[in-house]
């Protein structure tokens, strides 16, 4: 049995972060959730001091990524994560308000695994996150080796 | 600059007129002077003729005298013939002279004096000759010897001399007059020609000046045009940039507005979830013993005391207001997003069979039309080169609206027609629906604005969107309508739309 997946949530909006966390918990997922409100902190956590990503070596991670961040774009984070040898197999779920077709295409090109547009309607939003939580509770993720 | 341009022509016209007048004057005076010269010449000729005639008359008198002497001395008949001929010529010569000088009082007086003398002399001649013919030479000689005949002849000569000197005086006078006239004519011609020449030079200078002005004006116009083109290009670019900026701005704003909205909605829902727990807790606190048996929150709420029930009501009301406002805001943001996204879409010119396109739209709304008891008529429609998707959106919107705002008591009739109009194609979507009040004709095209009774769902976006699309296609969208009688929406599109110098759309 592999290690429980740690969810790395990169989301600048505290409210969204809380709502996401609550709904993941409501789905029954008990995974650890590490929240970062900006890109720099998230990168520091994921990559440590070097670009190798050795800081998280051996962890089973899943990244929940918002594209609109104050200090850097989500696509930049996505690109760097996918370029990092230890992290390139880490699933990245882009969860954002942007539903621009160009942006979606670009994210998949950069290696994102799932792209979800945050529904504005809260019922659907909550529903989507709960399903995501269910998904998180069963997903198998390789360790960052 | 325009004043400078107007001045030369007026001056030139004045110069031309002046030149013309002067030429006319010269011509008139020349004609007059030539005429008077000819008159002078006639007069001089007359004078010379008169002088000649005086000589002729005197010659005949002298001839008659010589013949008379010859005949008196020789009695030869040749002299008699000569004499007869000469005396016969005398009187006609003087008569001719009288005729010639009839207009001259002085000469007439002289002649009046001379003619009796001539007659007297003629009589003396005939007396002498008849004496000779009758052989009375002595008698004849006596008469001839008398000084009387000589005096008569001398007197005639004197008068003739006076007449001649009179004619000489006249001749000198007339020659002087002629010279004067000629001098005048020369002066007039020279002065006139000089003036005309001066005017010609002046107008030539003016023409050259105006030519130069025109060249300068043309040059500056050309420069201005070039600048204008550059300026227009620059402005167009600025406008395009501004437009793109607005599009980006609208997109970002509407996009970023969504984030907090998700929170508001999310936490409102969370509050709603909490509501049950809160009021259950209040009920528990106010009547704990009754609630222990029934943990269900609905029953718990029912047990609340009256003023707590008021609280529930207020709470629900607030929550509902928040939720409905969120819903509205969400729809507006979605609309703005749709519009800006549409504004960023790149258009592609395409040959479009509009009739087919409208038929397609009518098919998709057939169900609505049935429900509204309306029929949609499509007249033959001209084709157009434009963006297909934009046209679909425009006409869908217009036909949707027509179906949406029919009058319930009248069978709906919607007619789509079209015609060509000098480089443009005009399509009309006409209905017999409820119509739009005159004061709202502009308002219906404004974003988020609607007109009339608000009994149909809608955000007030459709027509704003349609107009924006038509404008991007280089056309116009307008309405003519009367409240209660129907509306006609007119779409005017360039028959061949080409990509304008629109910058790349992101």
Describe what you observe in this structure.
The complex is a heterodimer of chains A (145) and B (506). With 145 residues, chain A is of the alpha/beta class. Helices cover 40% and strands 16% of the residues of chain A. Chain A is built from five helices and five strands. Chain A has helices at residues 14-26, 39-47, 74-83, 101-109, 122-138; strands spanning 6-10, 33-36, 61-65, 92-96, 114-117. Chain A has a five-stranded parallel sheet with strand order 2-1-3-4-5. In chain A, helix 3 (74-83) links the parallel strand 3 (61-65) and strand 4 (92-96). The longest helix of chain A has 17 residues, at 122-138. Chain A starts with 5 loop residues before the first strand and ends in a 7-residue tail after the last helix. The model of chain A has no long low-confidence stretch (mean pLDDT 84). Chain B is of the alpha+beta class and 506 residues long. Chain B has helices spanning 2-74, 77-100, 105-133, 137-145, 147-286, 288-291, 297-302, 306-344, 354-364, 366-371, 388-404, 462-472, and strands at residues 350-352, 374-378, 384-386, 412-421, 424-431, 476-482, 486-494. In chain B, strands 2-4-5-7-6 form a five-stranded mixed sheet. Chain B has a two-stranded antiparallel sheet with strand order 1-3. Residues 501-506 of chain B have low confidence and may be disordered. Chain A binds chain B through residues 13, 15-16, 19, 22, 68, 97-98, 100, 118, 120-123, 125-126, and chain B through 255-256, 258-263, 265-270, 330, 333-334, 341.
């Amino acid at each position: 049995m592999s290690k429980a997946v740690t969810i790395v949530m990169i989301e600048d909006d505290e409210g969204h972060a809380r709502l996401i966390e609550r709904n993941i918990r409501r789905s029954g997922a008990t995974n650890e959730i590490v929240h970062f409100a900006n890109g720099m902190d998230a990168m520091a956590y994921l990559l440590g001091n070097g670009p190798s990503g050795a800081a998280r070596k051996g962890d089973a991670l899943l990244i929940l990524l918002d594209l609109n961040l104050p200090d850097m774009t989500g696509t930049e984070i996505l690109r760097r994560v996918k370029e990092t040898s230890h992290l390139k197999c880490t699933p990245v779920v882009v969860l954002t308000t942007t539903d621009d077709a160009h942006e979606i295409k670009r994210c998949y090109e950069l290696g994102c695994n799932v792209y979800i547009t945050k529904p504005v309607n809260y019922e659907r939003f909550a529903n989507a996150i709960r399903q995501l939580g269910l998904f998180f509770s069963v997903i198998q993720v390789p360790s960052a080796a | 600059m325009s004043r400078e341009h107007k001045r030369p022509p007026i001056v030139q016209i004045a110069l031309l007129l002046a030149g013309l007048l002067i030429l006319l004057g010269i011509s008139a005076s020349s004609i007059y002077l030539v005429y008077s010269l000819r008159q002078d010449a006639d007069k001089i000729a007359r004078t010379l003729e008169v002088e000649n005639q005086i000589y002729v008359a005197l010659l005949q008198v002298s001839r008659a005298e010589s013949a008379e002497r010859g005949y008196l001395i020789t009695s030869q008949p040749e002299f008699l013939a000569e004499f007869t001929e000469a005396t016969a010529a005398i009187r006609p010569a003087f008569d001719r002279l009288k005729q010639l000088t009839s207009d001259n009082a002085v000469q007439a007086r002289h002649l009046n004096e001379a003619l009796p003398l001539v007659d007297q002399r003629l009589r003396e001649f005939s007396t002498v000759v008849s004496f000779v013919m009758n052989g009375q030479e002595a008698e004849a000689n006596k008469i001839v010897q008398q000084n009387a005949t000589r005096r008569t002849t001398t007197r005639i000569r004197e008068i003739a001399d006076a007449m001649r000197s009179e004619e000489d005086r006249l001749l000198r006078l007339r020659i002087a007059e002629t010279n004067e006239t000629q001098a005048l004519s020369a002066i007039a011609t020279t002065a006139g020609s000089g003036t005309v020449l001066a005017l010609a030079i002046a107008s030539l200078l003016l023409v050259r000046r105006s030519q130069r002005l025109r060249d300068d004006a043309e040059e500056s116009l050309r420069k201005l045009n070039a600048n204008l083109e550059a300026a227009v290009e620059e402005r167009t670019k600025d406008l395009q940039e501004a437009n793109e900026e607005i599009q980006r701005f609208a997109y970002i704003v509407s996009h970023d507005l969504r984030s907090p909205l998700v929170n508001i909605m999310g936490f409102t829902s969370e509050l709603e979830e909490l509501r049950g727990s809160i009021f259950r807790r209040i009920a528990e606190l106010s009547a704990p013993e009754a609630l222990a048996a029934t943990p269900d929150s609905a029953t718990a709420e029912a047990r609340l005391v009256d003023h707590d029930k008021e609280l529930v009501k207020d709470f629900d009301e607030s929550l509902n207001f928040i939720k409905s406002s969120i819903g509205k805001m969400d729809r507006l943001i979605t609309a703005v997003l749709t519009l800006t996204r549409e504004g960023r879409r790149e258009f592609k010119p395409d040959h479009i069979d509009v009739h087919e396109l409208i038929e397609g739209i009518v098919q998709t709304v057939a169900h609505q039309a049935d429900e509204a008891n309306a029929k949609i008529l499509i007249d033959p429609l001209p084709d157009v080169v434009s963006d297909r998707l934009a046209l679909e959106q425009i006409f869908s919107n217009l036909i949707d609206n027509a179906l949406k705002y029919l009058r319930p008591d009248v069978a709906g009739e919607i007619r789509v027609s079209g015609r060509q109009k000098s480089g443009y194609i005009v399509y009309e979507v006409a209905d017999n629906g409820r119509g739009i009040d005159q004061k709202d004709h502009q308002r219906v095209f404004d974003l988020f604005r609607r007109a009339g009774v608000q009994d149909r769902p809608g955000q007030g976006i459709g027509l704003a969107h349609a107009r924006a699309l038509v404008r991007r296609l280089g056309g116009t969208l307008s309405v003519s309508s009367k409240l209660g009688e129907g509306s006609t929406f007119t779409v005017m599109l360039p028959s061949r739309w080409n990509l304008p110098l629109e910058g790349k759309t992101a």
